[in-house]
UniProtKB/TrEMBL annotation:
Entries under SUPFAM superfamilies matching the protein: Thioredoxin-like (SSF52833)
Subcellular localization, as worded in the UniProt entry: Cell envelope
Cross-referenced InterPro entries: Redoxin, Thioredoxin-like_sf, Thioredoxin_domain, Thioredoxin_ResA/DsbE_sf
Record organism: Flavobacterium croceum DSM 17960
UniProt entry keywords in alphabetical sequence: Cytochrome c-type biogenesis, Disulfide bond, Redox-active center
Keyword Transmembrane helix in annotation: no
Any one GO molecular-function label of the UniProt entry: oxidoreductase activity
Record carries keyword Disulfide bond: yes
Domain Thioredoxin per the UniProt entry, residue ranges: 23-167
Name the UniProt record assigns to this protein: Redoxin
GO CC terms, sorted: cell envelope
Amino acid sequence: MKNIALSILILFSLSSCLGQDDKAFSKKSLQEKLTTTDNNTISFKEMLKKHKGKKIVIEVWASWCGDCVGAMPKVKTLQANNPDAVFVFISMDKTFDKWKAGIEKHELVGEHYWVNDEKGMKGSFGKNIDLDWIPRYIVVDKSGKVVLYRAIETEFDKIDKTLKSLN
């Protein structure tokens, strides 16, 4: 009987870990303030609510990040292949001016927000979304549910497939 109970516990633990990319945003992350391009603030929750009913692709990036810049052509292809999705770029740049210059230099089309935190990725917003690498991609479905919580620049096929499955 102990072996059966132990086996069930192990299977349950494994099944809860395998294949699960979806994760809800924490209350703390939803309260985080983002700076808009016109230097106003909006909470992460308000930004998400603004797009309820639409598929959202969130890219956390920075203009100084080589992997982020290298992935830009793939992001643009993803945008072209998914015109019904909203693309939100959240920057971890160190200054407002560098962030704005990065948007222009890389000709990023979408909504833009900046995390104004001197600790950058290790700051409050980064901790609250489990940020360990950029670029980082998160996909949210039309109902506001996170369906892909952690994807990186090598997973564009997975991101595209996830978006296509949300139609």
